[in-house]
Structures are given as C-alpha cells and as structure tokens.
Amino acid sequence: MSAIDIKKVLSQLGVKDEVNQGASTGKNWMATGDVIDSFTPVDGSKIGQVKLASVKDYNKVVETATKGFHEWRQWTAPARGEVVRQLGNALREYKEPLGALVSYEMGKSYQEGLGEVQEMIDICDFAVGLSRQLYGLTIASERPGHRMYEQYHPLGVVGVISAFNFPVAVWSWNTALAWVCGDACIWKPSEKTPLTSIACQNIAQEVFAANDVPEGVSSMVIGDAEIGKALANDKKIALVSATGSIPMGRSVAEAVAKRLGKSLLELGGNNAMIITPDADLKIVVPGAVFGAVGTAGQRCTSTRRLIIHDSIYDKVMKIIVDAYGQIKIGNPLDENNHVGPVIDKDSVNNYLNAIEKAKEEGGKVLVEGGVLEGEGYESGCYVKPAIIEVENHYDIVQNETFAPILYVMKYSGDVTNAIELQNGVVQGLSSAIMTTNLREAEQFLSGQGSDCGIANVNIGTSGAEIGGAFGGEKETGGGRESGSDAWKVYMRRQTNTINYTTELPLAQGIKFDL
Ligand code: UN1
Questions:
Q1: Which of 22, 285, 286, 402 can pair with 222 through a Cys bridge, CB separation 3.0 to 4.6 Å?
Q2: Which domains does the chain have, with CATH numbers?
C-alpha cells in the first residue's frame, strides 16, 4: 500500500468523515462537549471531527454501563467468551481497513498497523480459552470436615485509559479479558487518535448487538483531562487501567487510591539493551535499530539506551551508525519506508528539546537529528532518528522522550556493571541483553539482574507477545496486562470455607465453650 482512500476506509469502519459523537454506550451515541479535529501526521490533512463527551455524558455512560454489568455478570463465562470469539473474527474481517486507519491516524507503518490488529485478534483468542478457565485454588483446611477454596467473580465497571501509540491493541488487551471476566468497560481513548476508537466501538457493537449483549458493556467516552479525572475519582469504577506517561499515571493512581479503588498502571519505560563482548552482532543490529526507530520511537517498549562493552564499542557503533544511514523516512503507508512521522508538532518539539538538552549536558551526537522538510514531509512531523553518546546520569537520559532518540554509553569489566546502568533509572518496563554467554544471560535474568517487568535475551526490548504478562516495575507502575494470569486483576477473589460437620471448630485452635 502506498496511498490510502481514507473516505473508503472510514466508511468501511462506520466512521463519519465529518462530526462524530464522542460518547457511546453501544446502542446510543451522545456528546455535548467541544468539537475537535483529527489530523493525520502522515500529510497533515484533517481526517474527521469528534464532538467530545462532557462530564454529563460521562455520567450517563457510567449509569448504563453499571446496569449492563449487572446483567452481563449473570451470563456464563463461556457464553461471554463466545461473544469475544466472534469479536476476534470480526477483527479478522476488518484487519486491513482498521490497520490502515491506525497507520494513517497515528503514523505507524502499515505493517505495524496490521500487527496491532493482529495483537487484538490474538488477545481475543487467548480470552476465549480463558473463558473456560477463570479458576481458583482448593486449599487444605486445618479444620476437620472443612473445605476451603477460592473463586473469582466479575469485578464491576472497568475504566480503560489508553494512549495514542497503540490506539487499538491496548484497548483490546484490557477489554477482551475484562469481558470474559464479566465486567463492563468504559474506554477513554487518546484524543489524538479518536477515529480509530470509534471504529473499534463500531466493530464491537456490531458483534454485541447480534448477541444481545446488554447495553453499556462496551462503552466509550472521548474527552479531555476532565473526563479522565471524573473516571479516576468515580467510586462506580471498580478498576482503572491506565496506559500513558508517568505524570498521568501518578495523578490517576493518587485519585484511585484516595477512594481505595483498584488501578492497573502501564506507564513510561526507559528500556536498555546491553551488548556484551559475546554478542552475536548479526542479530544485535536489527534488534537495536528496530527497537530504537520502530514506531518512530513511540512505543513504551522502544529501545532508549544501548549499554555496550568498551572492548567492542567502536566496532558496534560503526555498524549501527552505518545501519542508520540506510533508514528510509517517509509515508508509513509506503512499505519501502522504515520510519513514519511522530504523532504531532508537540512531539517534534519534545524531540528537539531532548536533543538540545542532551548536548547541553555533554552528549556527543553520533547521528544528527533534525526535522525533515520538503515534498512528502509537509506535515512537519517527520524527524530523523538520532544517536547521542551520553552518560546514564544525565537528566535527559533518565527521562522518557517519546521519539527516535537513542542514547549510547559504554560499560567496562563485568556484566554486573552493565546491569547496574540498565537498572539505574526510575522506570522498569523492558530490557534486553545480547550475549551468547550463558553466565551473563543467566545473571541478567536472576534476582540480582534486570529489575524490569520484561527481560529478554537475544531479542530487542519491544515487540512482546500477548501470551506473557505485560508491564513493568518501579515508576512504570507495577501493573500487568495481557497474558499469563493478568486476568485476575479484572475479577474479585473470594475465599470460601465450608463446614460439613456437626461441630464448629475454630481456626488457630481457639477454645470458645459456651
Ligand atoms: C505500548 O507501547 O504501550 O511489546 C505497548 C510491544 C507491543 C506493545 C507495546 N507488543 O512493543
């Protein structure tokens, strides 16, 4: 694909190319807030408009979602799984237009847009299997004639706050699981990618209506920070799952904690790849370069730092700098290009400021950055992937900049020193070591090794599969989404003890004779 017939794509997905309403309970759409435009960073043109949800609209949506939850939780989990199975099939049908819209509205490559929809299909498949499990444990009781076990019940209404960079996959990681668990979901997507969210809500609604799923189980509110605040403060929201920056997550966490609600946070990363003298350079280069420039450096798992052994530093950097020379930047729908635009002009400014700051702090530029101009770059959002040699303690290196800037640094001696640098940031999402040395790899994966939620050997920091739990430690927020047992956060756990005797023995052997 090199061009997109956006009118056709929008109509295939039921999105208007003029004003769309920004709040939905499934059957009903409403909105009484301001109108915003959705611009594509690909060529700067306006794709459509959305009338935002107001707090009043939000309150209506929560009311319907709560009613919907009360009905939906009575469905058996396999019956709920059947609906999610059909959603996965619908996503298979819409994969191309949805992938194209993701690519056009967000700016990632068409391949990555398709990949994101594939990630949605995969999580639906995973959730279908899960819908026949959702199991608890049976636990040995200390009292005779007693049976103790745990079960998981539906939790309530789940709020899902997602970011522009994975505008559809992160919604599905949360909702596919939450739905089989028996919850209703209210999605607050990024205002930077509103049309893809409307498309997803339409696809879900097509399937939900055909199955008579109660209204409100799939709800959406596109709104500003006020809506985010309302959702975080709202006692009716049992779980707030938020993906985005550390400051955003901190304010959500504080509001949710204040009302003793549950939150699931997936916040910033500052992901490093360690390259040891025993690394296989054939795989280091594509791994490091894709990690750093893929999605124009706008993944929370993007490779931000390379930590390279001083004995191979010059050799590795020469190959990587050469590889940067091969990178083609341009329209992400053209499959010859490796790197598309960043999301908007604010993002371009953050990129430029970060480069300036790194230089001020003493950074040495190895590959120059800059904003591209001229034919094909009219949107002003195309930037050159840059490489800067730094020291780990620089303030700018300690912070996540959502742009294709790669910081490189040396380590000497043992891999312990590299691990110390890798862990020496406040974030703890993803990490990688490139080595064929078993001892180094195992040390990296040990309890004294990487402190991140994701630690890889001989693959890059980005591109996790849905089957594993996804998330990170420290200021990344500690949440886990997607695979493994991440489903448990969407349910409430209950411990049940049943006495089938004629006696009433007390636990801990306490005597209480009447
Ligand atoms: C994100 O950037 O918020 O592991 C999610 C990855 C993707 C998901 C990234 N599967 O890079």
A1: 22
A2: 6-267+477-494 (3.40.605.10), 271-465 (3.40.309.10)
